[in-house]
């Protein structure tokens, strides 16, 4: 006794619409994946690769009308730019903000800067550094 086959004869009716839809979805998914990877790479390069100046606050000391900040700056030789610092009061209000410029051939700069405040500041926050 033999059993009847439930499959269609090979090549007689062409590919099913499910196979075509699967292939289309795979192609669209691959293209979108490549575009997303390229976009992440582009933004990563411009954020990390193009940032010629970076810094960090080592320590700070708050006074009545100023905050003294020990700032360490790392940069490419010959690059110039500025870093923005701010100070906030105990209630969170901003009491001081200033840009400090850096230049020259040194690649690492340790500098103590003074940020004037309108009242007693309790923080010293580095907002960012930018190359000229």
Write down the domain tally: 2
**First-last Cα distance:** 87 Å
Reported CATH architecture of the largest domain: Sandwich
CATH class of the largest domain: Mainly Beta
Structural classification: alpha+beta
Number of strands: 6
Quaternary state of this entry equals single chain
Strand order of the largest sheet: 1-2-5
**Rg measurement, Å:** 30 Å
**Uncertain runs:** none
Helix percentage range: 25-40%
Number of helices: 1
InterPro entries: DUF4307
Transmembrane segments: 25-45
Keywords: Membrane, Transmembrane, Transmembrane helix
Protein name: DUF4307 domain-containing protein
Textual characterization of the structure:
This protein has 132 residues and is α+β, with helices and mostly antiparallel strands. The chain has two domains: 11-50; 53-131, Immunoglobulin-like, CATH 2.60.40. The chain is 25% helix and 40% strand. It has one helix at residues 17-49, and strands at residues 53-62, 66-75, 81-88, 94-102, 108-116, 125-131. The strands form two sheets. A three-stranded antiparallel β-sheet has the order 1-2-5, with no helix packed on it. Strands 4-3-6 form a three-stranded antiparallel β-sheet, with no helix packed on it.
């Amino acid at each position: 006794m033999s059993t009847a086959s439930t499959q269609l004869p090979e090549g007689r009716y062409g590919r099913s619409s499910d196979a075509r839809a699967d292939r289309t979805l795979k192609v669209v998914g691959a293209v979108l994946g490549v575009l997303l990877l390229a976009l992440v790479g582009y933004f990563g390069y411009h954020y990390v690769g193009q940032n010629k100046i970076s810094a960090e606050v080592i320590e700070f000391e708050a006074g009545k009308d100023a905050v003294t900040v020990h700032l360490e700056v790392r940069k490419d030789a010959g690059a110039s730019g500025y870093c923005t610092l701010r100070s906030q009061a105990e209630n969170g209000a901003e009491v001081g903000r200033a840009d400090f410029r850096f230049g020259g051939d040194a690649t690492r700069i340790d500098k103590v800067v003074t940020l004037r405040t309108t009242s007693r500041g309790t923080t010293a926050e580095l907002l960012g550094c930018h190359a000229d």
